[in-house]
Specification:
Strand content: 25-35%
Number of helices: 4
Number of domains: 2
Distance between the termini: 50 Å
Largest sheet: 5 strands, mixed
Structural class: alpha+beta
CATH architecture of the largest domain: 2-Layer Sandwich
Shape: rod-shaped
CATH topology of the largest domain: Translation Initiation Factor IF3
CATH class of the largest domain: Alpha Beta
CATH superfamily of the largest domain: Translation initiation factor 3 (IF-3), C-terminal domain
Length: 156
């Protein structure tokens, strides 16, 4: 097997017993890196320390990952202009802070007849927010609610 690493006196191809003896002499573990290579590649290292570093690296990556926050804005198919502008202002703030916005129109009772009007309202909402975010999906009717997702634009 081929032996690699920083803490071994000589790198090269050794027998398994010789490699194990070298690892024992250094008080470390013999770890197989690539079994499919010809000859197999092994490394002499402290395996517990290696596992600890891997866990630590994974934890740091998880902390640095951005968490997606979804804020929902609800209105009806007959929402007045002032209320529309008020909700639009809130959506702008949410998009500027990096949150996604889920705009939804809830149809109560027979107001489902105004589905086209609700779709127009959601499309207008998306157009008004174009400089802050982009629409991820077109308005979709799911039961008694029509929803649309708007994602924030990437900051330069």
């Amino acid at each position: 097997m081929r032996l690699v690493g920083e803490n071994i006196p000589e790198q090269g191809v050794f027998s398994l017993s010789k490699a194990l003896a070298m690892a024992e002499e250094l008080g470390l573990d013999l770890v197989e890196i690539s079994a499919k290579a010809d000859p197999p590649v092994c490394k002499i290292l402290d395996y517990q320390k290696y596992l600890y570093q891997q866990r630590k690296k994974a934890k740091e990556m998880k902390q640095n990952a951005s968490k997606v926050v979804i804020k929902e804005i609800r209105f009806g198919p007959n929402t007045d202009e002032h209320d529309f502008q008020f909700k639009l202002k809130h959506a702008q703030e949410f998009l500027q802070e990096g949150s996604k916005v889920k705009a939804s129109i809830f149809f109560r009772g027979r107001s489902i007849q105004f589905a086209a009007q609700g779709e127009k309202q959601l499309l207008r909402f998306a157009v008004e927010l174009e400089e802050f975010g982009r629409a991820e999906s077109m308005p979709a009717l799911e039961g008694k609610r029509m929803t649309m997702m708007i994602a924030p634009l990437k900051k330069k």
